[in-house]
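Supplementary Data S3. Sequence and structure tokens for construct A.
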Amino acid sequence: MSVDLLTLGEAMVSLRSAGPLSAGGSLGMHVAGAESNVAVGVARLGHRVAWAGVVGADPHGEFILRGLRGEGIDVRHRVEDTRGTGVMFLERRTADISRAFYYRAGSAGSTLNRDDVDRAFAAAPRALHLTGITPALSPDARRAVDYAAARGAAEGLTVSLDVNYRAKLWSRDEARAVLTPLARHATVLIASDDELDLVADGGARGRRGTGAAAADPVAGAAAQSAGAEREAAMAAELLGRGVLDVVVKGGAAGAGVYTAAGRLEAPAVPVTSIDTVGAGDAFTAGYLSALLEGLGTAERLRRGTLAGAFAVSSAGDCEGLPTAAELALLGAVPDGGTQR
């Protein structure tokens, strides 16, 4: 049976503390990883989903596989006997600040290769979701993602690419050199507002705002206007290269999407934030699920912001992601977005 969405990348075990790690105390164990978070989110919203990746022959890998299978996800994995599954420690320092410590160098997940991609494509997906995290893990993983994106585009799949820049894995220049050509295969390009310059130029590089501008309301307004112009220029460049949806995530400021019809934006759904980890992946899952259902741009944005609101309202990477029926719990939020 074919699946609606295939995503591939490294899934890890996340060990979360309620306070400083140095103080000791209990740790909660969770499945983590941008691609697996999106897989869980889209599956909970009623779609057939496959996840492909590599885990170690260890309890951490077994935990991940059990968790994903429990969500009804078609797991197309390889077990690497000579390497361990990646682990991340997440330390909650304040209500607003968390710090991540990764132990993933040389992990099983970093050995993802083209053969793994070929096996995953046997799921006959309608859409493919990739992130900019996996190419940063190793040369093999980079080639695998390039191959998956090119194959997906050649076979007419909807190819989604979330930039998801991780400074602990590579520099911005290294990321730009890999992700700009990768983006040419994307149907849907998703990025935070500070990540667009990793996949497009738009004449914008190296001209960010300054602290002085932030302190001066007039200068700050001018900088904000210039920033919006640069964002629009980069989006136009991506649309000109064949991307159909350029989605810009703004966190608490909401999200916007550029298409051939213009820019549509939607505010974030107001909720009490408990944990922002995984919120971007939740938004992506909501947006892609609506796209798979053939819904319009406003409905995609709305579902993305709803899913993001559920994510930040719960602790954990993907534990709080909603089912389709639960979306109505936040149904009092006004529909749609604002066209600009």
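Construct B, processed identically:
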Amino acid sequence: MIVVAGESLIDLVPEGAAVTPLSPLTPRPGGGPYNTAVALGRLGAEVTFCSRVSTDAFGTALVDGLRAAGVSDGLVQRGPEPTTLAVASVGADGSAEYGFYVEGTADRLFAVPEPLPAGVRAVAFGTCSLALEPGASAYEALLRREAERGALTLLDPNIRTGLIPDATAYRERFAGWLPYVSLLKLSEEDAAWLGGSPAEWLARGPSAVVVTRGGAGLTVFTPSFEVSVPAVRVKVADTIGAGDTVNAALLHGLADRPTASLDADAWSALLSYAAKAAALTCTRPGAEPPFAHELTD
């Protein structure tokens, strides 16, 4: 079983052929960890979502979306606080930027759960949930606990600068997470903002670092080698959820293999699988990851 820990929210995505600042907004389920969980469910993985979700109408829709994708909600905490909103602004190339409404929302009040089931082999973390207190400290405690238990841990910082009031403090905290991370996945933009290099991050704990480079593809760095694969060319609707789909594809494709056990050929195959899955997500508005049957040749 894979557990994905982090926020769920509602993306308000502009619609229409000619998007303007006042284009109509369509609500879509979102949040990096939520998208990762849904993508894993659609790929056929046994997956559970671990978060705090509102009991409002948006929260109910989010839980319904998990169930529809085959994701267990057994570790979801519920509360009366409102659902976080993210207003997306989509550029001409399909890239998205976000404005967030997060004050007093449910996912910020996440509490450390009881010990996870014995069958959990991997736990994924990332995005807003690691930047917003008091929930951030609870997710960090869960990361440390599960790493010490021996679970594979994936971290995708997925930086949202508007939610980080103290960049220096966040970067220091990020460095403190690395000894508990098995697989670090981040975008080129995240890497530039955080500073440092794959070699430096590997020296702190992860056995592999995967960097997504948009239309240039994906690269994995390990202590022994570096492997790159190209992106799959598609007509892009937007890039919302593409990185989250990469997370899911990596975790699903690893199966029970530890990251340190993969050789260059195995990483090339895994990255190619992730690139194809992310490309299919980019062909659809909003975070709509592919199903397993769409990835078969």
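The first strand starts at residue 2 and ends at 5. Residues 41 and 112 are 23 Å apart (CA to CA).
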